[in-house]
Each structure stands twice: as structure tokens, then as C-alpha cells.
């Protein structure tokens, strides 16, 4: 198993010497160790920590670009009240007074906290203590409800506790790794690299189960393109196969209940329900049956479903039936999304949990936590889950809301309705690092938080490894840590027990509470860490005790009253049928180089070059039927809302099942906000939204003109469609509209904030207009308008920003020279077209050959699956996307 590695001492206080600080990446749940070293130019050099057991020195492209996200420019540096800068005292007093007043008038359930799996454990602990222990309401929920809730519910149903049985190392020991509803190559890239390395050395078989052919499929032996939502049918069929082949594990079954009932329920699933070609299905069943060491990794394709919890249990059923759990190289493994999704679960951040894996609905557990906190009250019933919480805000039942480290106006399903509810709420406080997020704009009180690199605490990754995030740069302005903000409000509300001076003290209290939980039988007992040297805490996996070997349940001991695991009968069902009005099922998710609402990755030009505009990936047959040409715009509507997205025609998605990414906001592309379309349908058990299957209608967006602009300064678009991305010299923007402006020169001037174009070129017959803005002899900006999507080498034009004496309009920049295309290798900025040319003309027919020829894929390695995909497309002569 992975053992904690001793780490070097972080910079001693006051030391002037440049010292490398060990910290943890703030993005995905892989939880990679990062070395941050101040460089000679006032920046921070970022490297993977070779001693961190999660990544052993590797970083993906997002992690490697972390240094470029630091800095204080544009940050929220002081509290604001009603848009005016205020002191901390004024802002905190106001929050405390509003919460106190609201509770006095309407009871504790009239206030709520909506927090985040990106909070540090210490922040989360304080939020939970304040809300549950002192305000006396369980109305604290987190964006983990949108993310991990179905896994939590599935674990608790099967194991009696929310415990992840396995570890990353299991992926390297396994003979077969099944990735279900997980685009691991893009979303957990370093874990994917570890898996690919294991495949290269020992031939690990990999199966990907996803309706979409993702980058993850490139490294797989088998891709099952199942019908959306059919996962429970598939795993029910697997359970039947296990039984029929005599693979039930007779030694393990005494530790399991519900075998017969589960099998009986599974018999109702038919191969045709899965949508998988019979040969592929048979190959999968045979492979799973034949591989004792099998890990089934699952993520949002499972969790974000109206039957997410059932899907989780259908998977776990197969592992329990075969006893393939909790031993090296085998088990179900739910990979967590956010850096501290797991820590939030441990600390009881969800509305239906208590701290340290204790149960809110267990009076003994409640009393124990209340006693430990010496708190006046403790809610006996669960609080509202995220979707219901914002409904209660809308209906005025929740009258004071504090949102911390999350952007629900963008990422909640039915996002416009959620934004409307927040806007209409009597009192809203938001803690963020920016003032301009879609949610922050709706706040009455805005609190400046310290961000990554400025704050201290712990996070727990997908394999239960607790690592330190450490500060290595000063906080901008008056920004303060999230825990500090919460504790300060709690004290002002008159509550005792919120007097910590540091996160170390909070961690000590939390570990001590986990000891109390341990005495009540909880598996989450990290009390051995309460006296550790917090500053020097090395990554440590719980349970630390060697008796468990770092894994759970191999001994057949579960956390149910009879110590047995539960197999759950799963009555598999498919998502509700589509209606003629909304005949497409919209799948949503992530792209490789962006993190959620892009408040960090959006700052880094090289992370915009891979996929820098909101898009709709749609099958060629659908596109042809709808009359959607490549690179035009599509209008997507659902009963909830409307979006305009760039058309990306691709047979990676099946007919009827287009895909769109979730990252764009009112700041970056107002009509690209995908959750304005998504229905707030939830899983009945977990309350997790089904973010991947909204019925939509699609038609061409009737653009009369398209434009592409580059500018050294921010632009002021006034048209219906625009999407902005940062480039090295400023910004670039795609624009389009349904009606042309009366005067193009006036329009261009308004776009450039009143600047007067220094040159113009116009050909109205062809719908062509071009304007350039030169000042001080240097190009400040340019905009190219055309009737059809603009043909110009974007990177080339953006690269001319700030250049001297460029006659960009007459020179038709870049049109007559090869366009490198969107960057595939973001580290070395190597475009898709350059790579395709190397494949077709130079015969670079392997990822290694592309590396030798162009350098592509030789830095962080995140693009290697896509390089493989481009080679595959070429050699299989597929229709170009
Ligand atoms: N680059 C990047 N990485 C991230 C993040 C990010 O924003 N950007 N966010 C992090 C977070 S918080 C999370 S939760 C994780 C999410 O990580 P993933 O879950 O891997 O990512 P998603 O793209 O949301 O969805 C995964 C896949 O589910 C598939 N899917 C849709 N419907 C179904 C279905 O019915 N069945 C099956 N089997 N599959 C289906 C989609 O096609 C998609 O490819 O990523 C983390 N890592
Ligand atoms: N359609 C669709 N919707 C989805 C999903 C999907 O797959 N499809 N996925 C869902 C999932 S799994 C998730 S996890 C959510 C993620 O959704 P969100 O959590 O809403 O998205 P983020 O952009 O991560 O929001 C984090 C916010 O915290 C701020 N911030 C950064 N650092 C700090 C800090 O240190 N302190 C404070 N207080 N603030 C800080 C950032 O500026 C940003 O505004 O989206 C969900 N929504
Ligand atoms: S794999 Fe995840 S944790 Fe590791 S560097 Fe990339 S984003 Fe960060
Ligand atoms: Mo997530």
C-alpha cells in the first residue's frame, strides 16, 4: 500500500531564503502533490512532488499551469456591502445580525449555508459546527450534492457507511479496470496516466462504459457505447452472468445479505435494454467474469442520474457477489471530483450527515457530537438538499443564505431559476476570490477569501489520503480564510467554541471528535493525528492502522448492525422517454483544460487553446438532418432555457445524444451557460441532479453575421452571441447576431469601448467588414466580420496583438498560411492541424513518433489520448469531425 513519505520542512517563518513549499493541487480529486518555488522573476515555479504518493512527480496540464493562475490582479481584496467597500467588522456584523434576526423571527431553518467540496476540511468543519451545532439547523448542503451524493448514498446502503473500499494502487494491481461514466483521461489525468503506465508494463485490460467515445476510450481495449442511463441494466446482466457461471463467492457470501432478491430483480434486465452490440456485451461479461482482480471505477455518468444510487448499488452488487472487494487490485472505486469532496464527506458537510461518518438520524450519534461541541442544540432531521434548498430560497422559506466557494448561479440545474431565487432572497452573503462571478454579483455582502497558495489546511483525495495545502504567497488585500470568516460570524452570533487561532487548532479538534466517533464504531477515526506536527504533516491515508492494510471490507466486516453488506435489488429503468418537442437527450460534462466555471483556468491563455468556446458535439446524421454545418451555431432549447453553441460535428456521440461542456458563464459566454437548459430532476434517494440527460430541441441559430475579434483590452459586445477567451496579449472573442447593426463602424467602435478604427475594409456584397485599431504604432485590436463563420487563423491574429505597424486587414493574416488549428498539446502549443499533417505527411503513426517529430505529448502527457485518437482517425479513414 501507499505509505506516507516524510516531507521536507516548509519555509520557516521569517526565512528569506527561497524555499520550496510542498502543497496539494486545488483541482481534481486525484490530489496530486505540488512543489511551489518562488522564481527569480517574482513568479512561482510549479512542479509535481516526486514524493507525493498520489502522483509521484506527475502533474496534468491544469496542475502544471497553476503558477499562471496566481497573482492579485482583479482579485476581490476587501469586503463589500451592497456593492460598496466595507470593513470586515461592518460586513461580519451585518451577516451575524441578519442571521440572528432571521432565526429569531422564522426559526433556524430559515437560514442556510451552501458550501463546496473545494473548501478545506478545516473550513468545512467550522461551517458544519456552526450550522448543525449552534444555529441548530441541518440546512447546510454543498455542491457535492451535484457530484458525489449518489455514491455516498450507494455506499451507505451497501456498506452501512460512506467508505471507499480501495486505493489508487488497486488500478495498478488489477488485471481489468472498468471505467463507467468516467472520462478519466480528461478529468483525473494523473490517475489515468498511472493506469496507462500499468497497462504498458503488465497489459492491464481496460473497458470504458460511456455513451460517448471519449479520449479515455483511446487507451481502452473495449468501449461499450451503452444507451444513456442503461448502466443498472448492464450491471444487472453482469450479476446474472456471475450467477450463471457459478462465480458467486461462497466464502464471502456469509458476509452479504440480499443475494437472491438482487438476482431476482436483475433477471428483469435484458441485453436489448443496454443498447450495446451483443458481441461487445458478451466480451465484457466474459472479461469481468475471468478477471478476479477487477476494479470498477465510476464517476458522474453514474452519479448524475435520476437512478444514480441504484446504478451505484448495481455495480457494488457485482463486487459483493464475487467477494472482489477490499483486496489488492479489486473493488468498486468512486473517484471524487473536487480536491476535497472526500474531506467534505468525512466532516459531514452534506445536509443528511453528521461529522466523522456519524449519522444525523441516530440519537446516540447526535448526543455524542452535541456533547463534544457543548452545543445548545442539534437538528434531529436532515436539512434541505441543494435543489430543494434553492427552491426554498425561491419560495421565501429560506431568507438568509451564505454561499461559499461555489458558483450555483452557473452550476445548479435550472441555473437561471436558481440565479433568480438568489437575486430575490432577502439576504445573501457570498465568499469568493472574485467579485464578478455570476453568483458573487447577486450578493448583498461579498467576503474576500484567500485562495490556493494563500491558505492553509487539509484535503482528502479519492483514496482517503489526507494532504496539506500550504500557503506560499501572501493574501491579497484584506482577504481572509473561509474558516476565519465562519468563525468570526459565529462569535458575533454569540456562540462559544469558535476561537481557534489557526487551522492546526481546528484540525486538532476535528481529529479529537473523530476519536469520539471511533468509540461509537465509526471507521473514520483519525484521532492519532490530533497531536501531530500539523505544519509538517505528510500525506497520510486513513485508516492508518496497519490492521486494515489501507483497504476496507476484505475481511467481510461492514458497518451495518449485523456487520454484513447489503446487496440491493435494483429495478433498473431507463430515463423517461423523449417527447417530439424535445427529441434530443443532452449530455453534459467537462473538457480537459478547464475547471468548472473557469474562475482559475480561464486566466491562463494556453488553457484556452484546446477548447476555448462553448460547443455542442453532435452526430453527423443529426447535424445533416437539422441542417447544421460545421462551425456554425446551434440554438438549443429546453423547457428551462436556451443556449447558443458552436457546432462540432462528430461521430464520437451517437445520434440523438449530443454533448455540451459545463464551463461557460455570463462572464465568458452568456448564451453558453449549459445549466440554464438542464432540468432539476433528481435521484429520489440521493437528491443528486441528473445533469446528463436533459431533453432538448436543436435548430440552427439564424446568424446573419459572424465576427472574430482580438483586443489588448476587454471588449464590450452588445450582440446576442459572444464567447471570450484570454490570449497572451489580451482577449479574443467570437461574436454573432441575428440582425446586422445599422452601421458597422459604429458597432466596431462600441465593441472597442469607443475607440476609433484606424483602418477599415468593407465588401458589403460579401457581408465582409474588417476594422483594425492601431495606436502608438502598435496593434490594439481587430475585428473581422463575415456572413459565414469567420475564416482566419485565430492564434496567428491574436499573436499580432501589440505588434508594430501591422496591416492586418489587407494582409489577410494567416488565411494563406497553414492554420495550426486548436491546440491539442497545450504545453508546447501544438495545434490539431499541425499534428494531422505530421501524421498524414510525415508518417508519424504513433504517439511516440509524434513526440519525436513535434514534441507533442512529451511534457505533461495530458494530450496523449487525443494524439492516439488523431492517429486512429487517420488510420481508420474516419470522416473528419
Ligand atoms: N478537466 C477537468 N477535470 C475535472 C473537473 C473539471 O471541471 N475539469 N472537475 C472535477 C469534478 S468536480 C468532477 S465531479 C469530475 C467528473 O469527472 P467525470 O465524471 O469523468 O466527468 P464528466 O465529463 O462529468 O462525465 C463523465 C462521462 O459520463 C458520461 N455519461 C453521460 N451519461 C452517461 C450514462 O448514462 N452512463 C455512463 N456510463 N456514462 C455517461 C459522459 O459522456 C462523460 O464522458 O471531474 C473532476 N476533474
Ligand atoms: N450541467 C452540468 N452541471 C454541473 C455538472 C455537470 O457535469 N454538468 N457537474 C456538477 C459538479 S460535479 C460540480 S462539483 C459543480 C461545480 O460547480 P461550482 O462549485 O459551482 O464551480 P466552481 O467554478 O468550482 O466554483 C468555485 C467558486 O469558488 C471560488 N473560489 C476559488 N477559490 C476560493 C477560495 O479559496 N474560497 C472561496 N470562498 N471561494 C473560492 C471560485 O472563484 C468560484 O466562483 O458543478 C456541477 N454542475
Ligand atoms: S490530475 Fe488532478 S490533482 Fe493532479 S495535477 Fe491534474 S488536476 Fe491537479
Ligand atoms: Mo464534481
From TrEMBL:
Any idea which UniProt keywords this protein has? 4Fe-4S, Iron, Iron-sulfur, Metal-binding, Molybdenum, Nitrate assimilation, Oxidoreductase
An example of a Gene Ontology BP annotation on this entry?
Answer: nitrate assimilation
Q: Where is the 4Fe-4S Mo/W bis-MGD-type domain?
A: 18-74
- Keyword check for Lipid biosynthesis, yes or no: no
Cofactor(s) listed: [4Fe-4S] cluster; Mo-bis(molybdopterin guanine dinucleotide)
User: What Gene3D superfamilies has UniProt attached to this entry?
Assistant: 2.40.40.20, 3.40.50.740, ADC-like domains, BFD-like [2Fe-2S]-binding domain, Dimethylsulfoxide Reductase, domain 2
> Molecular function terms in GO for this entry?
4 iron, 4 sulfur cluster binding; metal ion binding; molybdopterin cofactor binding; oxidoreductase activity
Xref: SMART domains: Molybdop_Fe4S4 (SM00926)
One GO CC term on file: membrane
Q: Which domain of life is it from?
A: Bacteria
Q: Which family does it belong to?
A: Belongs to the prokaryotic molybdopterin-containing oxidoreductase family. NasA/NapA/NarB subfamily.
Entry-linked PANTHER family = NADPH-FE(3+) OXIDOREDUCTASE SUBUNIT ALPHA, RESPIRATORY NITRATE REDUCTASE
Q: What is this protein called?
A: Molybdopterin-dependent oxidoreductase
- Which species is this record about? Frigidibacter albus
Q: What is the lineage of its organism?
A: Bacteria, Pseudomonadati, Pseudomonadota, Alphaproteobacteria, Rhodobacterales
Amino acid at each position: 500500500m501507499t505509505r506516507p513519505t516524510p516531507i521536507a520542512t516548509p519555509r520557516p517563518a521569517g526565512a528569506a531564503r527561497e524555499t520550496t513549499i510542498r502543497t496539494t493541487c486545488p483541482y481534481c480529486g486525484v490530489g496530486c502533490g505540488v512543489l511551489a518555488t518562488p522564481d527569480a522573476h517574482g513568479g512561482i515555479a510549479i512542479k509535481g512532488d516526486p514524493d507525493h504518493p498520489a502522483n509521484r512527480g506527475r502533474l496534468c496540464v491544469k496542475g502544471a499551469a497553476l503558477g499562471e493562475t496566481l497573482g492579485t490582479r482583479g482579485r476581490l481584496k476587501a469586503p463589500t456591502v451592497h456593492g460598496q467597500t466595507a470593513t470586515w467588522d461592518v460586513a461580519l456584523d451585518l451577516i451575524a445580525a441578519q442571521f440572528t434576526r432571521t432565526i429569531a423571527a422564522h426559526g433556524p431553518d430559515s437560514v442556510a449555508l451552501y458550501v463546496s467540496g473545494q473548501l478545506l476540511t478545516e473550513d468545512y468543519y467550522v461551517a458544519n459546527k456552526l450550522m448543525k451545532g449552534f444555529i441548530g439547523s441541518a440546512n447546510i448542503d454543498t455542491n457535492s450534492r451535484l457530484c458525489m451524493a449518489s455514491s455516498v448514498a450507494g455506499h451507505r446502503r451497501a456498506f452501512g457507511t460512506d467508505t471507499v473500499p480501495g486505493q489508487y494502487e488497486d488500478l495498478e494491481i488489477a488485471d481489468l479496470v472498468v471505467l463507467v461514466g468516467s472520462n478519466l483521461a480528461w478529468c483525473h489525468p494523473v490517475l489515468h496516466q498511472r493506469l496507462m503506465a500499468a497497462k504498458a508494463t503488465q497489459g492491464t485490460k481496460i473497458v470504458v462504459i460511456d455513451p460517448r467515445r471519449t479520449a479515455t476510450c483511446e487507451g481502452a481495449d473495449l468501449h461499450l457505447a451503452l444507451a444513456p442511463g442503461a448502466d443498472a441494466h448492464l450491471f444487472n446482466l453482469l450479476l446474472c452472468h456471475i450467477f450463471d457461471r457459478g462465480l458467486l463467492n461462497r466464502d464471502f457470501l456469509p458476509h452479504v445479505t440480499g443475494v437472491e432478491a438482487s438476482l431476482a430483480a436483475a433477471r428483469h434486465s435484458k441485453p436489448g435494454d443496454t443498447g450495446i452490440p451483443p458481441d461487445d456485451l458478451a466480451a465484457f461479461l466474459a472479461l469481468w467474469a475471468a478477471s478476479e482482480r477487477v476494479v470498477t471505477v465510476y464517476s458522474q455518468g453514474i452519479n448524475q442520474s435520476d437512478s444514480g444510487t441504484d446504478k451505484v448499488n448495481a455495480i457494488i452488487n457485482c463486487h459483493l457477489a464475487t467477494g472482489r472487494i477490499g483486496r489488492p487490485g479489486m473493488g468498486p472505486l468512486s473517484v471524487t471530483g473536487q480536491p476535497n469532496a472526500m474531506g467534505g464527506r468525512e466532516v459531514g458537510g452534506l445536509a443528511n450527515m453528521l461529522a466523522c461518518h456519524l449519522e444525523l438520524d441516530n440519537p446516540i450519534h447526535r448526543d455524542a457530537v452535541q456533547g463534544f461541541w457543548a452545543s445548545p442544540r442539534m437538528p434531529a432531521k436532515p436539512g434541505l438538499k441543494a435543489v430543494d434548498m434553492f427552491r426554498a430560497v425561491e419560495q421565501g422559506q429560506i431568507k438568509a443564505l451564505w454561499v461559499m466557494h461555489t458558483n450555483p448561479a452557473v452550476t445548479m440545474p435550472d441555473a437561471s431559476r436558481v440565479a433568480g431565487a438568489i437575486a430575490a432572497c432577502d439576504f445573501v452573503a457570498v465568499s469568493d476570490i472574485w467579485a464578478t462571478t455570476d453568483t458573487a454579483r447577486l450578493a448583498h455582502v461579498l467576503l474576500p477569501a484567500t485562495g490556493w497558495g494563500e491558505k492553509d489546511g487539509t484535503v482528502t483525495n479519492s483514496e482517503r489520503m489526507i494532504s496539506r495545502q500550504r500557503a506560499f504567497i501572501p493574501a491579497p488585500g484584506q482577504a481572509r480564510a473561509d474558516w476565519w470568516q465562519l468563525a468570526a460570524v459565529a462569535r458575533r452570533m454569540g456562540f462559544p467554541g469558535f476561537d481557534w487561532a489557526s487551522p492546526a487548532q481546528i484540525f486538532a479538534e476535528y481529529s479529537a471528535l473523530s476519536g469520539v466517533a471511533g468509540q461509537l464504531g465509526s471507521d473514520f477515526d483519525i484521532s492519532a493525528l490530533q497531536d501531530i506536527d500539523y505544519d509538517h504533516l505528510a500525506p497520510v491515508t486513513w485508516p492508518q492502522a496497519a490492521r486494515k492494510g489501507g483497504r476496507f471490507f476484505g475481511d467481510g466486516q461492514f458497518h451495518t448492525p449485523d456487520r454484513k453488506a447489503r446487496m440491493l435489488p435494483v429495478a433498473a429503468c431507463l430515463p423517461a422517454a423523449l417527447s417530439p418537442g424535445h427529441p434530443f437527450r443532452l449530455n453534459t460534462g467537462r473538457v480537459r483544460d478547464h475547471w468548472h466555471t473557469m474562475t482559475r483556468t480561464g486566466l491562463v491563455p494556453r488553457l484556452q487553446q484546446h477548447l476555448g468556446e462553448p460547443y455542442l458535439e453532435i452526430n453527423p446524421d443529426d447535424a445533416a438532418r437539422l441542417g447544421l454545418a460545421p462551425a456554425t451555431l446551434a440554438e438549443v432549447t429546453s423547457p428551462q432555457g436556451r443556449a447558443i453553441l458552436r457546432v462540432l460535428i462528430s461521430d464520437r456521440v451517437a445520434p440523438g445524444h449530443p454533448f455540451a461542456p459545463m464551463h461557460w458563464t455570463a462572464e465568458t459566454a452568456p448564451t453558453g451557460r449549459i445549466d440554464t437548459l438542464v432540468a432539476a430532476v433528481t435521484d429520489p434517494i440521493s437528491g443528486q441532479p441528473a445533469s446528463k440527460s436533459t431533453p432538448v430541441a436543436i435548430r440552427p441559430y439564424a446568424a446573419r453575421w459572424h465576427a472574430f475579434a482580438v483586443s489588448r483590452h476587454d471588449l464590450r459586445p452588445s450582440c446576442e452571441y459572444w464567447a471570450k477567451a484570454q490570449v497572451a496579449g489580451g482577449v479574443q472573442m467570437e461574436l454573432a447576431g441575428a440582425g446586422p447593426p445599422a452601421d458597422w463602424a459604429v458597432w466596431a467602435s462600441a465593441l472597442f469601448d469607443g475607440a476609433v478604427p484606424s483602418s477599415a475594409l468593407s465588401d458589403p456584397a460579401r457581408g465582409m467588414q474588417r476594422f483594425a485599431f492601431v495606436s502608438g504604432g502598435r496593434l490594439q485590436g481587430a475585428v473581422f466580420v463575415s456572413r459565414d463563420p469567420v475564416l482566419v487563423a485565430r492564434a496567428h491574429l491574436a499573436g499580432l496583438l501589440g505588434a508594430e505597424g501591422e496591416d492586418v486587414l489587407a494582409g489577410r493574416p494567416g488565411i494563406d498560411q497553414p492554420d495550426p488549428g486548436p491546440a491539442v498539446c497545450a504545453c508546447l502549443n501544438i495545434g490539431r492541424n499541425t499534428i494531422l499533417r505530421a501524421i498524414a505527411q510525415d508518417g508519424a503513426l504513433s504517439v511516440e513518433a509524434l513526440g519525436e517529430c513535434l514534441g507533442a505529448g512529451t511534457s505533461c502527457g495530458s494530450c496523449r489520448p487525443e494524439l492516439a485518437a488523431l492517429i486512429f482517425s487517420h488510420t481508420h479513414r474516419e470522416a473528419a469531425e
